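Lecture notes, structural biology module. Today: joint structure prediction for complexes of four components.
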Amino acid sequence: MSEIEQIYTALTSFRDQRNWKQFHNAKDLALALSIEAAELNELFLWKSKDEINNVDAEKVGEELADILAFAFLIAEKYNFDIKEIMLNKIQKNAIKYPVEKSKDKADKYTDL
Amino acid sequence: MSEIEQIYTALTSFRDQRNWKQFHNAKDLALALSIEAAELNELFLWKSKDEINNVDAEKVGEELADILAFAFLIAEKYNFDIKEIMLNKIQKNAIKYPVEKSKDKADKYTDL
Amino acid sequence: MSEIEQIYTALTSFRDQRNWKQFHNAKDLALALSIEAAELNELFLWKSKDEINNVDAEKVGEELADILAFAFLIAEKYNFDIKEIMLNKIQKNAIKYPVEKSKDKADKYTDL
Amino acid sequence: MSEIEQIYTALTSFRDQRNWKQFHNAKDLALALSIEAAELNELFLWKSKDEINNVDAEKVGEELADILAFAFLIAEKYNFDIKEIMLNKIQKNAIKYPVEKSKDKADKYTDL
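The predicted structure, tokenised, for the full assembly:
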């Protein structure tokens, strides 16, 4: 079983033991993901460039894991293959951000 | 190479060709993730339960891929093992949400 | 003193007693606002159309007040007149969303 | 008519001309607000402390106005008095953040 399959097994087993699929429509899963994203951001709030390095890595890992969990549950809902959608999007972004135009620049593609 | 390793290879190659690591501090990566999460949420905005099913799955996949990309880049920055942090957090959540108390309930653990 | 001026007086007095202006750069104020927005959203998470009506109005008011506080602090930082920027944006949105095209529709202006 | 009343008049007139009240349940209004908050945050993404000062103030004002618009529409929905909920919350926060403990510190009240 691949690592991604192992993650899915743990996630869906956690969910199904609690019978939570009934709550997991795509809109609320996406909302839950963005709430977890805010909790991750809160770890860095008001922190200067140097202070960011002192943020507790364990807490970062926990908030990130919650975000990933909802991302995987959305992927499962849509029968997405995680690797496939990511590689496809990276290819698409490579066209939006050509190396020669975007190198060393943090501009949005609409401003390149 | 595992699927997760293949994703990392594509992601970091995309990033390094553009020399973007200089912008990728943890605080801005987390902020970027939450902005992508908002773009995913926007697909469902104002939509009723039935209308959610008509949302373009391809667009959902693309926004989800952007979220996952930033999640993986944060994991890479902290040298996290994606599977490990996810399985650990699922275990922790299993304690916060005991089956007997949380079954069929969408309440936050603080309200159980 | 107008109501808006009274709000500013209370807000800046709260801030200055704690000497917090040093932390209040525009980027972190905007981040703080979005974290408070997530806390408001959390009150409605997993809730159906009917259940939304049972959400504690007092809690909604408190989260909304935190959002407004950061919005006012950003406005103060930029010397914006709240009424002026809002009326200007409503005018601009009226052009993006002409009545005849947008009536009874929740579509984004780019999809009208 | 107070400034806040003038804002409400412009906002509800904009909304009612388009017959949009039908879409404005509290959950989607809160979601819309957080999406606008992400658009404000995007203006500052990847920007260093110095670069923040070069962000276009007009754009900041427009995104902030959109956030405020949804905040006012939520307040209207709940019949909140903007000044009242803000002054009440400032008082509550003053207790959570006593001056002597929180002066010159950006810590969350749970960490003071």
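Point to remember: DSSP finds six helices and no strands in chain B.
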